[in-house]
Design brief:
73% of the residues lie in helices and 3% in strands. The protein is mainly α. Helix 5 runs antiparallel to helix 7 and helix 6 crosses helix 7.
């Protein structure tokens, strides 16, 4: 039996939420730039101890101003119908050698076999990075 796009969406959302998968949306680079600028500024003002102060202050500043680290399950909820069908297609391809009948059976299979769960996690990561253009 082939799972519907909606059922695949439910499975991938559950896994993404359980594994606390997040996308960075380029915030890591922006945060690094903020920290780097603070380190340089404090280093110029305070000398060698300024590097420590700048690193700590820059890290706090970058953390407080960064809001784009989003949970993957939120991104999955915002998918278009076309993206859901594509995810379903990729899911069916990735799990073609696994025997299951419905969502409940597949979830039970995932709970009992870490390998199956890893297949789904890798599928989610690949889909989010290639099709949705986000960084994990």
């Amino acid at each position: 039996m082939v799972l519907s796009a909606e059922e695949v969406h439910k499975i991938t959302s559950v896994v993404a939420q359980e594994e606390n998968l997040r996308v960075t949306a380029s915030e890591s680079l922006k945060g690094g730039l903020k920290v780097g600028l603070c380190v340089v500024a404090c280093g110029l003002l305070l000398g060698p101890p300024g590097f420590i102060v700048g690193g700590v202050a820059g890290g706090i500043y970058a953390t407080c101003t960064s809001k784009k680290f989003r949970p993957v399950h939120e991104l999955l909820a915002e998918m278009t119908p076309e993206q859901r069908r594509l995810l379903q297609k990729r899911f069916v391809e990735a799990t073609s050698n696994i025997s299951y009948g419905d969502v409940a059976t597949f979830l039970a299979l995932m709970a009992g076999d870490g390998g199956v769960k890893m297949i789904v996690i890798q599928l989610i990561k690949d889909f989010v990075t290639s099709e949705m253009k986000h960084r994990m």
